[in-house]
Amino acid sequence: MSRLLPFSIFPPQASTLAPRTDHLLFYLLAMSGLMSVLIAALIFYFSVRYRRRPGNERATQVDGSNRLEIAWSVVPLVIFLFTYVWGANVFFFAYTPPPDALELYGVGKQWMWKFQHLSGQREINELHVPVGRNVKVIFTSEDVLHDLFIPAFRVKADAVPGRYSAIWFNATRVGEYHLFCAEYCGTNHSGMIGTVYVMQPNDYQTWLSSAANASLSTTTGVSSLRTQGEHLFTQLSCATCHVSDGSGKGPSLVGVYGSKITLADGSTVNADEDYLRESILNSQRRTVAGYQQIMPTFQGIVTEEDLASLIEYIKSTQPAPKQVAAAEAK
Ligand code: CUA
């Protein structure tokens, strides 16, 4: 990364969000700068023009001007609305992960970032992603508040214990970028950093298969998150109650991901990753209507990695006609 200056004021623009964020920032800076200069110049001009002079001791009263009133009401209104619409536009872009995004899971803990790819590879303080692909990172914290921040992508979100957060990006430039924790989280907060490797799709595939052989995942061998989840689903006897045809003591989980769930109190909830996670750990909190609160908590029994794999398995189960995953909940 060669630059003219020995330092850089702005981090590189390496995602589709980066130029959008920067344009908005530059516009806001320009507007603020313009207003500051305008006000300063007017103060100077008026203090000279209307200074106290002999024979000019009393001001002339102005009895209002509709034109002026309308102008200084409407012009700022238009400017602020324009700013609002632009800002909202960038905001919605930044916080709406495209449905086709490549997903992966992350966990922040004192003091490291752990990532887990759907195909099972794990990494610590490193994150390998392909260039030109929508990528969504679903993450949480194992202990205290952390904050996942990738300046070059202009993405940043808190890792909150007990629930999932998500960021998404589409990296536009191959390279290595900083990854930070941006929330003070204890003694080694400053060391909770890492590198994002943006790779050509081919290199990324190569990395995935070589990482599959790496020692990080020896405990389970590298099997996909979904397969790991399927094993756990059996091991933890989830299928005893969550029978796929819905005849069990718990609701069928086939195709549950992304659906609208009616709760016991009549309200509805979107069955996203966060709801599935909460239901595994604490099903009593938002129980599905028509079912008894008999599911035990799995808090302390399953790890964050287990949760990610269980959720991926549940996501993979689809109603019969689609035959997407052909995964039987047995
Ligand atoms: Cu984790 Cu600061």
Question: Keywords, please?
Answer:
single chain; 330 residues; alpha+beta; Immunoglobulin-like; Cytochrome Bc1 Complex, Chain D, domain 2; 2 domains; five-stranded mixed beta sheet; 12 strands; 34% helix; elongated; binds dinuclear copper ion
Topology (SSEs and partners):
Elements: H1 17-49, H2 66-95, E1 102-109, E2 112-117, E3 122-124, E4 126-130, E5 134-141, E6 146-150, E7 155-159, E8 165-170, E9 175-181, E10 194-199, H3 201-213, H4 225-235, H5 238-241, E11 260-262, E12 268-270, H6 273-281, H7 304-316
Parallel strand pairs: 1-5, 4-10
Antiparallel strand pairs: 1-2, 2-3, 5-8, 6-7, 6-9, 9-10, 11-12
Helix pairs in contact: 1-2, 4-7
Bound molecules: dinuclear copper ion.
Q: How does this model look, in words?
A:
The protein is an alpha+beta fold. The protein has two domains: 202 residues, Sandwich (Immunoglobulin-like), CATH 2.60.40.420; 105 residues, Cytochrome c-like domain (Cytochrome Bc1 Complex, Chain D, domain 2, Orthogonal Bundle), CATH 1.10.760. Helix content is 34%, strand content 20%. It contains seven helices and twelve strands. The strands form three sheets. It has a five-stranded mixed β-sheet with strand order 3-2-1-5-8, covered by helices on one side. Helix 1 packs antiparallel against helix 2 and helix 4 packs across helix 7. The longest helix has 33 residues. It is elongated, with a radius of gyration of 27 Å. The C terminus is likely disordered. The structure holds dinuclear copper ion (CUA). Dinuclear copper ion binds next to loops.
